Amino acid sequence: MHMEARKYVWEGAIPLQIHLHESEVTTLPPPPPALILAPRIGYLPLLVGLIKPYFGSSLPPGVDTIWFEYKGLPLKWYTPTGVLFDLLCAEPERPWNLTVHFRGYPVHVLIPCEGEDSVKWSFINSLKEAAYIINGNCKNVMNMSQSDQVELWRSVMNVAGNLEAYLRVSSKLKLITVEDDYTVKLNSSSKSQQGTGETDFAGQVKTGRIPVRLYVWSVSEDFDDLEDAPDIDCWDKISFINRPVEVHTEEGKCFTLRDAIKTLLPEYFTDKPLFSDESPKLEDEEMNLSSEDAGSNKNTEVEEILYEHVTRNAEIKLVRIQGIEPKLEIPFSWVVNNLMNPDYFLYMCICVRVPEVNTV
């Protein structure tokens, strides 16, 4: 089941309908949109070899600086295509309608991209970062032979994805992940697990640091259907959290996806009461505030209490990983081992409803 799930992830693709921006069309009639299947684990700039010949005869003269947008939002080229889709399409749009530009690169929003070389550089650096989180160093990635590095990159950039080639090369990096909890229950049901230590292949003692990239989209509006979710029209609305999850599995307990999210977003999950018996209630603080206290520390404390109250009453509306909306009770080890990206990061998209607070 393990390899079958990974194979599904590697073969995952998103149907794209790519339109050339009207300001760059120089022919009549304008070219029809290009229809492309984009690998989830791939990157938009890697599609240029298919897109540029299609639109080439319609472009104005000048130097190509290719970039993509969705509903006016420039898309970050170093983020995997599947992650962009999961994040920006709460209600999946198929085909996903994107606009391609060959001019006017938005340098105020996107860092420069020099084509495939920039994407490869970004991928290798991400792999180094993941290796450092997992092993405490990135020597194995730094010491990769040139041929292995080329083969690894080709296995990722290939339109169809080549899982066998990827596994053959990536296994040399010795980036051990956590043992699947299902496997542990089968293999060690009669054995007790004691102490803590690094993950081993037997899976009897498991701890680990899992590289996670979390995209949190906060909304104030409530909605029941994903099609009613507000659009993301600015990257400032997204909180990007690059943080490892420390996995500690105890005997008889399963470290779940919910546990991982609690670790990543502790402000949204707390078992502590908002107010202790010894501390004054929010209503009392508001009643005791005078006009002279308006700019005082006490007013600041009230605002902090209000903020804490809001975050503790936040509601997770959506968790999406590799296009899947898993139940929060699923073992986190299964999620990591089956849904991580080729750079060894687990990308998670989360929509959180945070009620608005009025401190006036």
UniProtKB/TrEMBL annotation:
* Source species of the chain: Citrus sinensis
Name of the molecule in the record = Autophagy protein 5
